[in-house]
Amino acid sequence: MKRYVLPTIKILIALIVAVALVKIAFFPDSNDGTTAEIEPGIDSSTQTTVVTAGDITNTVDVKGQVVEDAAVEAQATLNGVVDSFAVGKGATVTQGEPLLYLKLVEPQEPTVSTDEEGNPIQTPVEDKVTWSTVYAPTSGVVSFNVIQDQETSVGMVVATVSPGTYSAKGTITADQQYRLTNAPSSATLTVEGGPAPFECTGLKIGTRETTSTTTSETGQVTTTTGDGTTVEVRCPVPSDQQVFPGLSVTIGIDAGSATDTLIVPVTAVEGTVTKGNVWVVTDPADPDAAEKREVTLGITDGESVQVTDGLAEGDEILLFVPNKDIARTGEPNTCEPDGSACYDENGEEIL
């Protein structure tokens, strides 16, 4: 009898499982249709933030390296010849010290007169000699590009002086340029593996042309000059600091700070310079109905931005600019003309 009972029980269990699977596959629970499908990574709620008062510092750190300052040229100021040298090659000179002397000899026509008998008499006239001194344009070690008695022309480089000094140099991106529109004249240099951070003065920021030279298989040399959009930051290293060319350095530029001022996240503002737009929540129950409002902007630290006009402490605004959930792309290291977006070296929007 047991031989027939056990197979029957197994068959019944298999039928029950099969019916359950059919129910799940073809007749799902009706309550499932009432659950909204939320795409992973998307916040279905509208996020807001509150305008607060705080402190903000606009410090831009520029990565660069230590470079030796280029030699300074000394040019001839006379069309003549090299008469003599005031110092020898490799000498250490100070700015304004004579380097060499130039000489221009111009023969003069003799004067003609007559004697008592009316015969012409020529009297020689001494040559006109003009002298010019070439001075050291800066202090350093001198090298000469000419030899004695060599002819010179005005503007010709006759010597160079290597100052033996160093500078910290780096390049900045388009969005960093906006943060440095009112840059100071000094910066803090942090040399990797070097001395403690120290201050440098004479900070300069400006565009420079980029030039590249290529040589083809035929030996033809091609020089390409860029459009001058590379912005260079350069600051002299003080003479009492020991550094070496090629060392990595961080140039810290403090472009301003503010205390107890209104600040908001940069993600909440459309635009980053001078003027911007925020979306103010007028009805807490309906943040999606926030109204667009123009505000005046101050400094930024890259995460927060100062608001000098247009908002009050405690105002509730949208945390993110509407319809800006997808990052834009553009020309690398540039910004939109209205300042609404800037792009990194890969052309991706900096949020």
UniProtKB/TrEMBL annotation:
Pfam families: RND-MFP_C
Molecular-function annotations in GO: efflux transmembrane transporter activity
Gene Ontology CC annotation, any one: efflux pump complex
Membrane-spanning segments: none
InterPro entries: MdtA-like_C (IPR058627)
Residue ranges constituting the Multidrug resistance protein MdtA-like C-terminal permuted SH3 domain according to the UniProt record: 261-317
Name assigned to this protein: Multidrug resistance protein MdtA-like C-terminal permuted SH3 domain-containing protein
Provenance organism: Actinomyces ruminicola
